[in-house]
């Protein structure tokens, strides 16, 4: 499954070649600075044929459309939780790559891919995903060893490199590959059907609660835990929320580390409550990675589908996969990838120095801010897949996430549900809904 992640670097849709991007440090440029040709640079998604495929209609025309309604609602998950960060990222996206002091903001697809695949990264630096995972999940580097895959490095994937990283990924490959996902489908399909039954009777369904149960069920099955799915999901969400809060810049938060440690212990206890693999740190990491992304992605995708009136496409067996991929692209569940350079290099034509902080804005790189989901003309895989990262660390759960969303869309489609209530989650580690209530507008559930 991870083989599906190889990304064509010459893809024009996802941004002009990195040679087009002019380093903001050295370039003059107007207020918006130089722009690349593609999705991540200035917002317009430009396919190979030069046709602006994914751009939504002009603002005025789009205001009344379903896509505009979907986008307006979806923006709330960012604005409620991180309004300042959202504003900063939006304000800086006019340039594909922009340096602010020792921080380099990367908004464009080719430049993001370049960082993830070619630039040596410090996987354990504080403030990065790897550093946060390492400090939250308690893995320890043996004294005196480098984090290069040597023995003694009890890593959690995100913070690893080299042989140890490859070896640990192999332990997940079967479970998250096609055969593993098919087995999981047999678990989650009946659960989805059962939980959607209230729609047939004119009732409502909270897709966030369902997503939590689905994610918990998947994690339980993957890790051989006997704990209740909802408890696993709640514990994994707590670890991520506390750990993100602890990493935010600002005043020191006394007790933050201890709170993360307690939440991690709770999660490990739950996961260890069964036929566990014995690798507690990795198990906890898989739980955190799977739960938080799934709980963010599925409800946002369902809301977008409902608001934009895409249920016909969701019901279509030939279009559903493409629609799911597009919904994962525009919702970009993990919208910001914080990394630190471990060596001097280049990102999108801009020199990067060892120790520079790199903020990879996946949301902009895939054109999520600029173009709605289009199952008939989807973004090229090399662009859309960037929501799952790229290179050796590319998300091993991408196939699972796509299959789960496809099945949820297929099960919801006959009801053509509409959103009756949506409340953003201000506490969650990733932008998402706290509740997302749907009611049928078609089928037996229509009133
Ligand atoms: C919509 C759902 C998901 C999104 C958007 C997502 C996104 C990502 C991203 C951006 C990365 C970092 C990739 C990089 O650094 O290049 C990642 C890594 C990872 N994801 Fe996912 N993910 C999702 C679902 C899942 C699921 C369902 C699982 C497990 C069942 C999972 C397990 C992992 C693991 C273990 C890693 C670390 C890989 C490594 O460092 O080698 N993810 N994910």
Automatic annotation (TrEMBL):
Residues 60-74 have a biased composition (Basic residues). Residues 38-51 have a biased composition (Low complexity). This is Cytochrome P450. It comes from Streptomyces peucetius. Residues 1-74 are annotated as: Disordered. Gene3D superfamilies: Cytochrome P450. PROSITE patterns: CYTOCHROME_P450. Belongs to the cytochrome P450 family. The lineage of its organism: Bacteria, Bacillati, Actinomycetota, Actinomycetes, Kitasatosporales.
